[in-house]
Amino acid sequence: MTAIYVLDVPEFAPLAGAAVADGLLLTRRAGYIRLTAEGPITVRRADADMVDAVWFSALTGGYTGVLECFDRDRIRVLPDGR
Amino acid sequence: MPTAMRTRGVDHAAYVTTRPAETIRFYRDVMGLRTPHVITAKGWGSRPHPDFVHFFFDIGDGDRLAFFYYFGVPEDPEARPPDYHLALHVDTEEELLAWRGRFEEHGVRVIAQIIHETIESIYARDPNGMIIEITRPLRDLTDRDRRDAELSLEALLDSLADDVEPTLETFWRRKAELVAKELDNEVAPDDSADGHTEQEAD
Fold this sequence. Notes:
The complex is a heterodimer. Chain A is α+β, with helices and mostly antiparallel strands. In chain A, about 15% of the residues lie in helices and about 45% in strands.
């Protein structure tokens, strides 16, 4: 399983809207948005429209899985395989 | 965590300067800050700099920026610019841009103007190489931000205490565990009452 946790505030919320995964489940509770999927979760920056300071802090809410990619353009979290 | 004892803002932040004339000109003449207090002392400083002038600038709301100038201590040509910085608060974008204009009028280079998560800032270096940031809020911080900050510190402490070498990734994975508990601990509200959603995303 993979998960990304996003603080539910205006500057980070676009991340949740830009996340893509098969069967992506979104839970909005306790001040956070939880995105979960069985497989990889991908976020393309072009879809999130975030300034540098927010984009590079995008995982401050935490993630579950293996961070395969986090660069200027893309975040991809994979299942950890355990 | 103590809650009854509190401090109230910055009384003064104090730094050492070996370029006192330039420092006075920057803060007094370029930035236009007033000088509420100056202290001089003979033989009270540590060796090898017993004699000093300690001068203060008013940075607003009763807070002060202070410098020590120690007589007889030369500037170290090998010294690296300080890694720390000081951020001064303004309320509005207009004020932020006015400060940018003020620096530029006086030939002080504005290094950057950056939109952060909850603030927008400009940056310049003072004559000591210290970065002076001027920043305005983009939104108010809330209890949600505060709770998230508490969880971040908890995650960092846990990461530092772990047997594994701490990295940002170990921190983020621990943070996820703590946030997951927050979600699990909150009683699922009535969906119709406050918009709680659990749904397949698009």
